[in-house]
Each structure stands twice: as C-alpha cells, then as structure tokens.
Amino acid sequence: MKALRARSLGASLGVLALLLLAAMTAGVALGSVNVPPLVVWRVVLGELFGASSSLTDMGMQQHQIVWLVRAPRVLMAALVGAGLATVGVVMQAMVRNPLADPYMLGVSSGASVGAVSVLAWGSFAFVGVHAISAGAFVGALAATMAVYWLARGRARVQQSTRLILSGVAVGYFLMGLTSLITLTSGQRDLAGALMTWTLGSLAGTQWSHLAPPALVLLAGMLWLALQTQALNALMMGDETAATLGVNTHALRRALFVVVSLLTGVMVAASGAIGFVGLVVPHVARMLVGSDHRRVLPAAAVMGALFLVVVDLLARVLFSPMDVPVGVITALIGGPFFVWLLMRQTQARGESQ
To answer: pTM (2 decimals)?
Structure first.
C-alpha cells in the first residue's frame, strides 16, 4: 500500500511538474508581444548554458522580452505561489481550521504594514537591501501572534467563527494602519507602493529579486519536510499530539516563525496576494489525501502552477492593461471561500 501511494504521489507530482513547465512556457511566450515557444526555449537554454548566436533586431527584441522581462516574472509567480500555498497548508494544520489562510487571517496585512513602514520611514535600514523583507517578516509575525491569541481566548483556537473574526478584525486594523502610514509619510510615490501591497503585482520583477524568496522557500520546505509527522499529529488535536510525543507549544512557536518568514518574504516580493493559501491546499488534499508528507510537496507545485496561470490570465485577458494578479485571485478565492464556509456549516449541522 505504501509503495502504491508513493507511486501515486510520484505520478501526481510528475504530471503537475509537466503542467507547471507548460504554464511557465506559455507565461513567457504570451503577452502583448507573442514569442514562439521554441524561441523561448532557445533563449533560456542559450542564457543558461552560455550559447551565443547572432541576433537580428527582431531576435534581440524577443531575447530581451523573454529573458529580462517575462522569465523573472514567471519564476517569481511560481515561487510566490508555492510559498503561499505552503503557508496555507501549515496554517490550516496549525489552527485546525480549513478556512485558515495568510490573507484571511491578516498575516499578509501585517507583512504589508512592515513593508510599507520600510518605504515610509526607512525602518530596518541596518539590513540593507533586505530591509523590506525584514520589515514584512516582523509585521507578519506580529499579526500571526495577535490573531492566534485573540482567537484562542479561553476557548479552543479551532473555533472557526472566533478565528475568522479575529483574522478579519486584525486584517482591517492593519490595512487602516498601512493607509495611515502612507497618508502621513509625505511621499506621493508611496501611494503606488500601497496599491501593490494591497492588490499584489508581479510587474517589474527582475532577476535580482528572485534570490530571497527562492532561498527562504527552499529552507522552509526542507524544515517543514522534517515536521510532517508532527503536523499530522497536530491535526488530530493537541491532546492526541501530546500523547504521540509532540511538544505542541514549541512546535507552534516554530511554525509561527516559519509561516511569518515565508509570508513576509513573499509579500515583500509581490504584495498581498490573497486566497492562494486557501484554495490550493484543499485541491491538493483532494488529489493526494491529507497526509502532510504528500500534501506539502503537492501544494507547493500546485501553488506555483496556479499563480503562473493566474498571472498569465491577468496579462492576456486584459491586454494591454496589466491587471494586478491579486484581483484575479480574489475573484477566484471569494466564491471558493463562500463554498467552503457553506460546506463546513452543513457538515456541522449534520453532525449535531
């Protein structure tokens, strides 16, 4: 049975990886100026392996579009999608709530406050070029802790209504704080940055922007891969997890840091893109089951695929306008959230 499940997971990941590769190729090829897929791969392979060839003016234009404009943007979409989907999986296990998501629970709003404070006041200047990521991490960590303690109170944290209301309250408060920082900073350009953090955008991504999210995602995934058994136990409740030898308090503290770091770095790179961490984990569980040894890698690849496709749709469907990718994810995630809420309410009514 284990061998069958391993083969099934391998086959699922293989199919998802091929779909992701196809989506990334389409993401680079399609846009206001279409580039043939073969040209895309010739440019990419040429850059990766140092192959040089004579280029016409048209060839030079296509080369710049592929390598300097679209390739880093598509890669950033994949990294952010994988990161947010991973955060969604972990948060849903951490609080035992299928509605948990970094956007819904105000964590992304906290990261936005931290990032905008860097732009407005120069906070965390001592870390240099990583100041925005550092600010977003601190903001995300503060928001995560605030939502957790507000939702917990004297009751169990897994009460859905208390958790969601706490997240919405914290999120709206932090959105207001972000607006206040922007309005009182005296910087007109900050309004444009605020729009980026609020709606999420991958426009203007450069190769130099990819390193922080890539390194944080890799480190986070490696650490979480060692915690899959503990996450499975946590889903069964704190008492059961404790009997299985899991230190739930220490685990949650560590998860707070990892979730905040992943969310903060992703928001610093792309803004607050909502609902990726809500939609993708549920679809991943439908595909590979609820075991976190299977859900985490599947959700990461599916999150990358999801955001690459959404970013492509945002560029192609509304061309020549570059619609923020967060607008499309909200249009998808809003109805999905309502469906989940109705499904959860119905299941609760049937159990009573």
So the answer is: 0.89
